[in-house]
């Protein structure tokens, strides 16, 4: 289990250890591309060379299932504890009806590679892939129909926030939207530099608010957000040197993105700020899935499977925080009752957030005065992060509740 030790140098000298991401034993060195859990204990992973893994104890152990193929599998999903689907190279779609014990091939009608498959009901599902391929089934996979997308760009991800509304994204800034259960798809524009964008994963909180993870043709990563159903998109402050392969929001405020070289990013406030979490591995991370607000699984290169049970842990750099920063001063520190937070460079748009060391938001409020008093007497003893966001500038500090 990965542990970090936090040395507190603010008026006291204490040490705390907090687990973040545990590296699990997968039993394979194949590239793992997708992860899906049907309940807190039962999960499935798909990957290269026909790899399908299953756990029935929350990831503690994984068994290899017989998929019947050596093809690359790019995506896996389930509609019940027994019925699941995986899709991959050459138009391959496999289905199980007995919890993964056996898999049989479905007729997809395409030889193009498929990289993302989702179901919005037990019968209705979608798969997307190379050359603008978009398939739909209305009979639990028995038949698949190709729908025109108007693009030949490779599609990399498809997501439906509700049965009627869905989004598919792909290379060179491709975004498609449907509002009629996938019968017709409309191209959306992410901006004037769309041809430079590499979209690799999408996730929507609802029909209007969603996120895309990926990067730029030049080779670095970023995240895009819409709040008007794809009409307009803003680039999130999440730039990284590495592509981001997968994005997931367990709730409207908290989001995660994972990518190359073990990159783990987390937002606690709907994408306003993205923290970098400490690396648990330097292997590429390809997919993330949450089973609860605090428990998530990430899979990737060389058979990597990671698990967190504390919401991903606390941000990188917390060790270097003190009780003062450019934007805030915190005192008394430590405190058992009232903490005073001064924000001398305050603007009318400032937002104050207190997080625990696991990166979970404890309190968020707008700040309109230069001095704010916070009663922390009911908080558990420990370390807390104070963050102020003012005119797009972020200041951070920490205090100790004793």
Assembly state here? single chain
Largest sheet: 4 strands, antiparallel
Q: What is the CA-CA span between the terminal residues?
A: 27 Å
Please give the CATH architecture of the largest domain.
7 Propeller
Question: Percent of residues in helical segments?
Answer: under 10%
Low-confidence segments, given as residue ranges, are 1-19
Instruction: Please report the number of helical segments.
Output: 0
The fraction of residues in strands falls at: 35-45%
Shape: globular
Short structural description:
With 402 residues, the protein is mainly beta. The protein has strands at residues 3-7, 15-19, 22-24, 32-37, 43-47, 52-55, 63-65, 73-78, 84-88, 93-96, 104-106, 114-119, 125-129, 134-137, 145-146, 155-159, 166-170, 175-178, 186-188, 197-204, 210-216, 221-226, 234-235, 244-248, 255-259, 264-267, 275-276, 285-290, 296-300, 305-308, 329-331, 338-342, 351-356, 361-366, 371-375, 382-390, 393-401.
What does this structure look like?
With 402 residues, the protein is mainly beta. The chain has two domains: 21-308, YVTN repeat-like/Quinoprotein amine dehydrogenase (Methylamine Dehydrogenase, Chain H); 318-401, Immunoglobulin-like, CATH 2.60.40.3080. It has no helices and 37 strands. It has strands spanning 3-7, 15-19, 22-24, 32-37, 43-47, 52-55, 63-65, 73-78, 84-88, 93-96, 104-106, 114-119, 125-129, 134-137, 145-146, 155-159, 166-170, 175-178, 186-188, 197-204, 210-216, 221-226, 234-235, 244-248, 255-259, 264-267, 275-276, 285-290, 296-300, 305-308, 329-331, 338-342, 351-356, 361-366, 371-375, 382-390, 393-401. The strands form ten sheets. It has a four-stranded antiparallel sheet with strand order 3-30-29-28, with no helix packed on it. The protein is globular and about 65 Å long. It starts with a strand and ends with a strand. Mean pLDDT is 89; it is low at 1-19.
């Amino acid at each position: 289990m990965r542990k970090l030790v936090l040395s507190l140098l603010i008026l006291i000298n204490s040490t705390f250890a907090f687990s973040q991401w545990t590296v699990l034993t997968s039993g394979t060195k194949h590239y793992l591309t997708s992860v899906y859990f049907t309940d807190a204990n039962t999960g499935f992973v798909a990957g290269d060379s026909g790899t399908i893994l299953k756990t029935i104890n929350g990831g503690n152990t994984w068994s290899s299932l017989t998929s019947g193929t050596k093809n690359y599998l790019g995506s896996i999903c389930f509609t019940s504890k027994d019925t699941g689907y995986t899709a991959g190279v050459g138009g391959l779609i496999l289905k199980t009806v007995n919890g993964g014990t056996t898999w049989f091939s479905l007729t997809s009608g395409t030889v193009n590679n498929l990289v993302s498959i989702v179901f919005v009901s037990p019968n209705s599902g979608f798969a997307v892939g190379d050359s603008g391929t978009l398939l739909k089934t209305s009979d639990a996979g028995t038949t698949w129909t190709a729908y025109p997308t108007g693009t030949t760009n490779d599609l990399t991800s498809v997501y439906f926030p509700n049965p009627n509304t869905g989004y598919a994204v792909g290379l060179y800034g491709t975004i498609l939207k449907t509002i009629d259960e996938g019968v017709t798809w409309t191209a959306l524009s992410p901006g004037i530099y769309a041809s430079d964008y590499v979209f690799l994963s999408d996730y929507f909180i609802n029909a209007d608010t969603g996120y895309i993870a990926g990067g730029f043709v030049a080779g670095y990563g970023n995240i895009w957000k819409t709040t008007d159903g794809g009409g307009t998109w803003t680039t999130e402050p999440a730039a990284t040197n590495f592509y981001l392969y997968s994005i997931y929001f367990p709730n409207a405020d908290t989001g995660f993105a994972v990518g190359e070289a073990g990159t783990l990013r987390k937002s606690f406030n709907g994408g306003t700020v993205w923290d970098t979490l400490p690396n648990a591995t330097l292997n590429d991370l390809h997919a993330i899935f949450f089973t609860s607000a605090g428990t998530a699984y990430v899979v990737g290169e060389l058979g990597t499977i990671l698990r967190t049970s504390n919401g991903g842990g606390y941000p990188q750099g917390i060790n270097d925080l003190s009780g003062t920063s450019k934007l805030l001063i915190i005192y008394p520190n430590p405190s058992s009752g009232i903490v005073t937070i001064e924000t001398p460079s305050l603007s009318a748009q400032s937002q104050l957030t207190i997080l625990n060391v696991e990166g979970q938001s404890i309190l968020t409020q707008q700040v309109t005065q230069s001095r704010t008093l916070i009663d922390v007497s009911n908080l558990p003893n420990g370390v807390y992060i104070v963050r102020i966001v003012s005119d797009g500038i972020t200041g951070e500090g920490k205090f100790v509740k004793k």
